[in-house]
Design brief:
This protein has about 180 residues and is mostly helical. It folds into two domains: about 70 residues, no CATH class; about 100 residues, no CATH class. The protein is built from eight helices and no strands. Helix 1 packs antiparallel against helix 2, helix 6 packs across helix 7 and helix 6 crosses helix 8. The termini are far apart.
Length: about 180
């Protein structure tokens, strides 16, 4: 579990955030119970060293969530910080860098973000957090094998394009600095 998170954090920050949201929900779903985690999840991990590392990792995540008052909902401060960085990157791409490709994607995405906020009665959250919330919900529907309308599927493709562009730009920024004007 830990190694999956580390790989995703280094390769695709959006996948990392979605994975960590899933891990937070898993911990909540198991009511922060280490025994339930051991029996329900970690029993499938054959490598003893990896199982122990994963157990410690989940314990640390659970402790952080409790410290931050996230027993029922919300996300750890580390994840919110990454989301804030992505939002700042979005604003930089749109205004400072005048990234035409991103501006085109964002133009398609912006009305859907507003529509999603209205439908879910979401508090005014950042565009990035709104898109992540939408995609996370979509993935949970797919896992539950629920029917997904064509309009929702179409909107999710746009959200995914938007987030994929940000993920690529974020990785580039972290490894090479901001790109030059396009």
């Amino acid at each position: 579990m830990l190694h999956i998170a580390e790989q995703r954090k280094n390769s695709n920050v959006i996948e990392y955030l979605l994975y960590m949201w899933q891990m937070e929900d898993l911990i909540r779903g198991l009511r922060f119970d280490p025994e339930a985690l051991e029996q329900g999840v970690l029993s499938a991990v054959e490598d003893e060293r990896l199982r122990l590392q994963s157990k410690k990792w989940f314990a640390r995540l659970g402790a952080e969530m409790k410290e931050q008052g996230l027993e029922v909902s919300g996300h750890r401060a580390e994840l919110l910080e990454i989301i804030a960085e992505l939002q700042l990157l979005q604003n930089t791409l749109l205004t400072v860098m005048n990234d035409k490709a991103f501006q085109d994607i964002y133009t398609k995405c912006a009305p859907l973000l507003m529509e999603f906020r209205k439908k879910t009665e979401q508090l005014p959250k950042s565009d990035v957090e709104t898109a992540l919330t939408a995609v996370y919900g979509y993935l949970m529907l797919k896992l539950a094998k629920k029917e997904i309308s064509p309009d929702t599927a179409s909107a999710m493709e746009i959200f995914q394009s938007y987030l994929a562009y940000l993920a690529k730009a974020y990785r580039s920024m972290k490894h090479q600095g901001l790109p030059q004007d396009n």
